[in-house]
Amino acid sequence: MPLPLVLPKRVRSLAREEVYAQLSTWIIDGTLSPEEHLRDQEIAERLGVSRTPVREALRRLEDEGLVETALNRWTRVAPLRATQAAELYPVVETLEVLALRLADSALTPADLNHMRDLDHVLQGALHRQDVQAAVQADTEFHEVWITRSGNSELQQTLRTLKRKLRRIEVASFTAVGSGQASVNEHEALLTALQEGHLEEAIQALEGNWRGSLIRLQDWLVTVKGIT
């Protein structure tokens, strides 16, 4: 299992939460690939901890759907599944629309300028083929109105759901035209918000999520053979 060779200093001080955070980060950013087998002893040695916090972290990740096990056979990173994306994307879309409605009166010109700056960052990352930076810029773009919604329960729910989607987005953002299509959809959303047309902005947001799902499903089927 190709665990990273370079880790932060003082890894032996990693506590239960830090082991979980490290493993989940490796899974979400693609360091640990879908269907890659996970061996608790190897992970424990790499992180400089006992096997107990590793096993606890793996159980927690299994509950979240990021890890799966076959009893007495293997533990592995959960595979990418188009069905999971098809279930999650409409839910996230609906909740983001609610967040945008709640945020509409709170969004400032500075917020809109920040969103435009983030789109420029996204374009630059796409040009450099820096997938991690592109996905982060896209996430922060949407986070502007999620934060401005002022609803902490909605914010937490969205962040939890989108965390599950992030590894799929990291894996697929290099699909031809996918990132640029998102930039174009963001532009339509920004234009509507700047002109004070909330319903048009909502239509653009819905189009962004639905277009993203279609592009993702096409990529999973044609590139990865996943249905």
Question: Can you offer a commentary on this structure?
Answer:
This protein has two domains: 67 residues, Arc Repressor Mutant, subunit A; 141 residues, GntR ligand-binding domain-like (Four Helix Bundle (Hemerythrin (Met), subunit A), Up-down Bundle). Helix content is 69%, strand content 4%. The longest helix has 25 residues. About 2% of the residues have low confidence.
CATH superfamily of the largest domain: GntR ligand-binding domain-like
Number of strands: 2
Q: Which regions are unreliable across 5 or more consecutive residues at pLDDT < 50?
A: 9-13
- The average pLDDT is 88
Descriptive key words:
single chain, elongated, Arc Repressor Mutant, subunit A, 227 residues
In short, what is this structure?
This protein has helices at residues 16-28, 40-47, 51-63, 82-103, 109-128, 131-148, 152-172, 178-194, 198-222; strands spanning 67-70, 74-77.
Could you outline the blueprint of secondary structure elements for this entry?
Blueprint (H helix, E strand, L loop, with lengths): L15 H13 L11 H8 L3 H13 L3 E4 L3 E4 L4 H22 L5 H20 L2 H18 L3 H21 L5 H17 L3 H25 L5
Antiparallel strand pairs: 1-2
Helix pairs in contact: 1-3, 2-3, 4-6, 4-7, 4-9, 5-6, 5-8, 6-7, 8-9
